[in-house]
């Protein structure tokens, strides 16, 4: 074969191969851009209104950071196709209690959050909080679930794996406990403590929009993995 014809033939083979790959394989292998289509997810930004939650280093208030991160989580979940219901959007308690504060109102507030989750036909409930401890060295994200709830444990572990691998690895594991919102929820429910406001450096990071966005994407991946029934690791840039 003439050298030009030969290279032309080679070129045609390459084009044909490229066409085969572009038509056949990516359709099969490409992950859905809407992996959460059809899912309804309740995001519960912890505290709010008269209940500030923890107050950490630099005067950072838990209810504010929880709201900021929750909005970002809601955004990425919606982008992934989920319908998202927030238990509050702004600095208020879901119960609209206001005024005198105190234990009774806080219980009412928590009851409203759970009621909302149980009534809106949601598949899962994510409560977003920030941790605080007397030891200033404690750091890292941790997910909690109701003791005895297998589905909540699976959800908690799926999110914890992603947090450890792609946000901050403090060696923490998903932990069972007894929590009002989780105990009374009829759907898988977890509390995500995204980090420690009592840790000097981590508290600063938790207010950084880029870190908040990263945390939101990591939580999204954990949720997607939970629904897909695997804990496949995906690195985030
Ligand atoms: Zn809290």
Report on the structure:
With 237 residues, this protein is an alpha/beta fold. The protein folds into 2 domains: 1-30; 36-228, Zn-dependent exopeptidases (Aminopeptidase, 3-Layer(aba) Sandwich), CATH 3.40.630. Helix content is 46%, strand content 14%. It is built from 7 helices and 6 strands, in the order H-E-H-E-H-E-E-H-E-H-E-H-H. It has helices at residues 3-29, 62-79, 103-119, 150-166, 180-183, 200-206, 209-228; strands at residues 40-45, 83-86, 124-131, 142-146, 175-177, 189-196. Strands 2-1-3-6-4-5 form a 6-stranded mixed beta sheet, sandwiched between helices. The longest helix has 27 residues, at 3-29. It is globular and about 85 Å long.
Short note summarizing the structure:
By secondary structure, the protein is of the alpha/beta class. It has 7 helices and 6 strands; from the N terminus they run H-E-H-E-H-E-E-H-E-H-E-H-H. It has helices spanning 3-29, 62-79, 103-119, 150-166, 180-183, 200-206, 209-228; strands at 40-45, 83-86, 124-131, 142-146, 175-177, 189-196.
Index terms:
binds zinc ion, 46% helix, Aminopeptidase, globular, 237 residues, 2 domains, single chain, 7 helices, alpha/beta, 6-stranded mixed sheet
Give the topology.
Blueprint: H1 3-29, E1 40-45, H2 62-79, E2 83-86, H3 103-119, E3 124-131, E4 142-146, H4 150-166, E5 175-177, H5 180-183, E6 189-196, H6 200-206, H7 209-228
Helix pairs in contact: 2-7, 4-7
The structure holds zinc ion.
Zinc ion binds at residues 46-47, 53, 62, 129.
């Amino acid at each position: 074969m003439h050298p030009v014809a030969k290279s032309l033939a080679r070129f045609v083979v390459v084009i044909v191969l490229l066409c085969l790959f572009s038509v056949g394989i990516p359709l099969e292998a490409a992950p859905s851009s809407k992996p959460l289509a059809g899912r309804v997810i309740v995001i519960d930004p912890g505290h709010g209104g008269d209940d500030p939650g923890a107050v950490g280093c630099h005067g950072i208030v838990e209810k504010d950071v929880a709201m900021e991160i929750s909005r970002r989580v809601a955004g990425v979940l919606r982008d992934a196709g989920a319908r998202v219901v927030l238990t509050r959007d702004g600095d208020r308690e879901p119960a609209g209690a206001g005024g005198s504060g105190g234990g009774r109102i806080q219980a009412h507030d928590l009851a409203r959050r759970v009621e909302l989750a149980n009534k809106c036909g949601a598949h899962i409930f994510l409560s977003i909080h920030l941790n605080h401890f007397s030891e200033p060295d404690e750091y890292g994200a941790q997910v909690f679930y109701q003791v005895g709830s297998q589905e909540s444990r699976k959800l908690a572990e799926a999110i914890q794996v992603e947090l450890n691998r792609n946000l901050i690895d403090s060696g923490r594991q998903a932990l069972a406990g007894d929590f009002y919102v989780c105990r009374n929820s009829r759907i898988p429910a977890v509390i995500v403590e995204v980090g420690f406001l009592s840790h000097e450096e981590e508290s600063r990071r938790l207010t950084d929009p880029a870190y908040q966005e990263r945390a939101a994407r990591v939580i999204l991946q954990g949720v997607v993995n939970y629904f897909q029934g695997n804990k496949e690791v995906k690195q985030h840039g």
